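Q: Here's a chain of 334 amino acids. Please give me its 3D structure as tokens.
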Amino acid sequence: MTTGEDAAAVPRVVAILSSLLQRVAERNDAAAAGPRQQQAQAVSAFQGLTKPAISIGGYLERIFRFANCSPSCYVVAYVYLDRFLRRRPALAVDSFNVHRLLITSVLTAVKFVDDICYNNAYFARVGGISLMEMNYLEVDFLFGIAFDLNVTPAAFASYCAVLQSEMAYLEQPAAVDLPRLHCCPWPGWPGDSVFRLVVPVLKVGSIIGRKGELIKRLVEETKARVRVLEGPVGATERIVLVSGKEDPGLELPPAMDALMRVFKRVSGITDGAAEGTQAATAPGVCAARLLVPGAQAINLIGKQGASIKAIQEGTGATIRVISIECYSNSRSQH
């Protein structure tokens, strides 16, 4: 357990990342009620036989105290972990594998990011595993991410924004006991809908309004939580976090209602009910960009693209699923 002085020295990113992964592990532990043998065979390199006694938060703090990693290493480790899990969708992060995944992703990140780092033998002692296992995990992890170690500034900023939204959600009272389902989980679980909409900076004013009047009215009318997250200096876009409890008695869930209203404002569509007009005016083409966890994207696409094809045929809309790195790279080239 850390003292008050030690805790104050721990970067915020360590606490945010540990909180996020703790909820992932707890949710997947609860979901894995059946036999674990088949899953353990598929990911035997990282799957432990028992749950470690140390918590995820305590484990990350231990790594921070003894490995002397820079704070940016934890963001890069998060990027690597996301890449690894997207390539292995059958792997669910739980209490049996999260510690090994963490020590390996941090080890990989510190070697790539920091100028000076400890060797594998030292990291093995910090992580509580043998040197042989540490070496094996590192090799398996590198092959798991196809040796894709480069993280562009745009991609780094995007993952920082995801962690920032996690921090923003944790600061709200409703976030205390909401487990996450995926590695890069949006705050929430069945019963709590969450959306992240990417909007241009110049359109943020149409959401907030003068002195916050519009966003305040939006929250009051929809009963959803709406928050515009801060972005890196010079960023041309912001993430709007929309979340709300599901209500079976409503025709449209609060979060979906708020999301549609935000989208209409950003796209310049006039809502007749809200503005006192009878018709909506809109540009010829409307585009919405949502940030979606990799595991949810797989469900959206469906087997051989069947699900996404059915949605496009039923709505007439065009849907593209791209990775956050590809999106960040395309934005940085413009």
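Q: Can you summarize the key feature?
A: The beta strands are 192-200, 225-228, 237-245, 289-290.
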